[in-house]
Amino acid sequence: MFDFSFSELMVVMVVALIVIGPERLPKVARTMGHLWGRAQRYVNGVKADIERDMAIEEYRQLQQKVQAEAGALEQSVKQVTQTADQRVQQINEAVAKLSSSDQATPNQATHLPTQSAEDPSAPPPDNKSA
């Protein structure tokens, strides 16, 4: 962050020793260390907050993308369902049309007789032996 060479750092320390004095220099150095630690913790906290906010924003964007894809998929499924329903309805209409045309022409071979070959007016046979 700051570009100090060793010689510049030595000059600053000598000036601090002269200005502050040898009695108060350890206390000032300790205070400066505490302040430096606080500043670093503050900067790290701000960085963490920024990273957390960025992650939250990324998650929101991802959620919006997923919701958009889900909506598109839902719309696609609805279209396929409607198409399938229309085709089923067309098939049902065609089957109904064919069955009505089969009933209109009773001479076709596919038509099964409804009465038995025996006399329709005769009562059913009794299966009891006396």
The gist of it:
By secondary structure, the protein is mainly α. It has 2 helices and no strands. The longest helix is centred in the middle third of the chain and has 80 residues, at 25-104.
Secondary structure: elements and pairs:
Blueprint (H helix, E strand, L loop, with lengths): L5 H15 L4 H80 L26
**How far from one another are the termini?**
121 Å
**Shape, please?**
rod-shaped
Helical content class: over 70%
| β-strand number | 0
Q: State the helix count.
A: 2
The secondary-structure element order is HH
Quick one: biggest sheet? Answer: none
Q: What is the radius of gyration?
A: 48 Å
How would you classify the helix and strand content by structural class? mainly alpha
Q: Which regions have little confidence, pLDDT < 50, spanning 5+ residues?
A: none
User: Residue-averaged pLDDT, rounded?
Assistant: 83
The percent range for strand residues is: under 5%
What does this 3D model show about the protein?
- The protein has 130 residues and is mainly alpha-helical.
- It has a domain at 7-85.
- 73% of the residues lie in helices and 0% in strands.
- The chain has two helices and no strands.
Q: What structural keywords apply?
A:
130 residues, mainly alpha, 2 helices, 73% helix, rod-shaped
